[in-house]
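thread from #wetlab-drylab

HS: before we spend reagent money on co-crystallization trials with NAP, can we at least see a predicted complex? here's what I'd submit
DV: go for it
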Amino acid sequence: MSTQTTGTIAVFGATGQQGGAVVDALLDQKARVRALVRDPESGRAQALAARGVELAAVRADDPASLAAALATVAGFYFMTPESNSLEEVQAEIRIGTALVDAAVQADVPHVVFNSVFGAERESGVPHHDSKHWIEEHLRKSGLRATMVRPTAFMENFTTVMAPSLEQGEIVLRLPLPEDVALKMISIRDIGRVAAALLLATAQAPGGAVELVGDELTGPEIAAAFGERAGLPARYEALPLSVLPSELDRAMFRQFAEAAEDPSDLAVVRSIEPAALDLPEWIRATGWTAPTDAAGA
Ligand SMILES: NC(=O)c1ccc[n+]([C@@H]2O[C@H](COP(=O)([O-])OP(=O)(O)OC[C@H]3O[C@@H](n4cnc5c(N)ncnc54)[C@H](OP(=O)(O)O)[C@@H]3O)[C@@H](O)[C@H]2O)c1
């Protein structure tokens, strides 16, 4: 017996990284998708429309626009935008709360909230606690809800956590002790797991799943990049004080604490058997070693 959801799935954040991956995975499954966007004329929104995605113009501060966009949908995925200051954290909570309230008004049958690892409890990390409060609001709403809680994006290794090439050696420096395993997930797999939950081809035990595709220490991460590059690799653990923002210091403290929590890797694999580990992600993305900092 198939219980797969066949109605339209609404996606908030569809023009972004995670929401975009959810749309990709939903379209792969031939699902009907409605993207809730600020600007339907933007290039990213138009690119979605060209792939058959219905666009609904919304404003997070206009509850009527949100409820109208959620009318008659079978499921609703939302993420909340990144917060880099305490003011943005407050705005993030307002957006998440408004989206939950609109889902209540539209009587959405199932809501999947893209939260963050550790958000089942308050952690003292402001842009994670924002998601904890949104989870609490969603839980109290009475809606059927599933929390997906991504760990660090593997894609961060192409930006803020990118290894460098120094005198013929791959070097990774992170503010994380070298014996701590960092939990990580590819954005592609965030989308695939969320889509499976939205389409009811999978369930998350207890209504929540930490999204983790690999767990590796700094030296193991460096070695994975070194192996791909065919070069020696080393890891340097940096002090937290190298991070200019207290939000980021709090987050890296939590990365270390989260390593102690039981992992949902097996649950993720049961939902998405092809979930990428780091070496697979490195191969799949075609990662190549950066230019040598010394110009060698
Ligand atoms: N980096 C990590 O390792 C990591 C790990 C776990 C969780 N996270 C969390 O992931 C989130 C960021 O996700 P992402 O990288 O997928 O985001 P993203 O690529 O920056 O996309 C943000 C999306 O939100 C939409 N948006 C932003 N502000 C809006 C507003 N006021 N009203 C309506 N739509 C708005 C944007 O639409 P427009 O087209 O209108 O701009 C876009 O679709 C953050 O909450 C972060 O804490 C990050």
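DV: The chain has one domain: 9-284.
HS: ok that's useful, forwarding to the group
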